[in-house]
């Protein structure tokens, strides 16, 4: 199967909610067909394909790229599991374009007159929908019996995850399809989620026919998944909406964490989102994470000499990419992802640090400032032995939202450049989206320094 990447730049909004305020604000998404005819033409083709084919289509959302299929058909949703290599007990998130579409999924008989029953959207979700939708928040909804959803999407659970993505491209694709779209992240299972069309192509080339390229995703980590059907309500996966933001909403003051994080506070709960138990977000390289709480003297806040010696150490030649120097020693490629504390190359002894050759992270879209970073390359040096390896250095900046945006992309970029190990500077996970960043990093890490 040949995989086509179709650019849908979406410079202008492709549609809008019919009412901009009041109780009906998110009720109807309408498409503006005249604004960007080229983009709408591509979306119409993709929507037609989604309705008729059993092969999923990749599309961008504000969080990460998703791999979409008609959520009402078994054959098409099965196609998602096949393309990704995803375990079948891991349910999919259902993407809707407006509340009308969501309500249609919450009642067994959508033909009944509106107003005959009370609103089927659980009242506890109202403040969250009002504040965070459309946006990076997935809400567990009761799945009625009979349900319009294909049984594969819920993996046998009595609930389904519903999300209203915020980009006009995603909302318009769903609207044109006329059906809710089941979509997990469009990576191969266990790999970091894709934040560009190139990442999707790397993982799923030959397995799907169509990737809609809308540029880099602005949030960069997946949606927060919450369960408000239980008491107290619970966060099943941290994501684009922070737990502190949830706590500020009525009825959500006591929301608890129901995911395993291996964090430093040791108060982890067993995971309740099936997907949170699997190995995830792993680049090929070994990731060593330095927790933000770690102090100098208790393991060091930067990779220590001892750490390096262990990695580069004598006779250790398991490097898959390292070249062999004239003296027969294996040269290692050391990746560094810097955030709030580390200086260039994380303080490792280096020389000739310069802008690396080749395409940078592929996010250099002038329309999306702040979504690109540079990769620096230099020598790793040793006082006595000279050049002992290569440093690949990425600075994601100090801002947590910027770090979240670049995180998956940086892990993939260092993999692409052949890093054997990646040292990452962790951030304090107490505020906003930082909780999601550290959750993903702890899952990606082979070793955690505290
Ligand atoms: O931002 C996102 O959420 C992206 C974009 C594409 O929308 N999607 C995404 O989907 O990350 P996925 O499939 O990679 O992750 C969905 C998570 C998994 O951990 C899954 O187990 C959990 O949500 N989940 C889905 N339905 C559930 C349910 N009914 N009960 C508990 N957990 C559920
Ligand atoms: Mg995923």
UniProtKB/TrEMBL annotation:
It is found in: Cytoplasm. One of its GO terms (biological process) is tRNA threonylcarbamoyladenosine modification. It comes from the Eukaryota. GO terms for cellular component: mitochondrion. It is an enzyme of class 2 (transferase). Keywords: ATP-binding, Cytoplasm, Nucleotide-binding, Nucleotidyltransferase, Transferase, tRNA processing. Its main location: cytoplasm. Its EC number is 2.7.7.87. GO terms for molecular function: ATP binding; double-stranded RNA binding; L-threonylcarbamoyladenylate synthase; single-stranded telomeric DNA binding; tRNA binding. Residues 40-241 form the YrdC-like domain. InterPro entries: DHBP_synth_RibB-like_a/b_dom, Sua5-like_dom, Sua5/YwlC_C, Sua5_C, TC-AMP_synthase_SUA5. It catalyses: L-threonine + hydrogencarbonate + ATP = L-threonylcarbamoyladenylate + diphosphate + H2O. Gene3D superfamilies: DHBP synthase, Threonylcarbamoyl-AMP synthase, C-terminal domain. Belongs to the SUA5 family. Required for the formation of a threonylcarbamoyl group on adenosine at position 37 (t(6)A37) in tRNAs that read codons beginning with adenine. Likely catalyzes the conversion of L-threonine, HCO(3)(-)/CO(2) and ATP to give threonylcarbamoyl-AMP (TC-AMP) as the acyladenylate intermediate, with the release of diphosphate. Required for normal translation, by ensuring translation fidelity at the level of codon recognition, appropriate translation initiation selection and maintenance of reading frame. Also involved in telomere replication. NCBIfam families: L-threonylcarbamoyladenylate synthase. This is Threonylcarbamoyl-AMP synthase. The lineage of its organism: Eukaryota, Fungi, Dikarya, Ascomycota, Pezizomycotina.
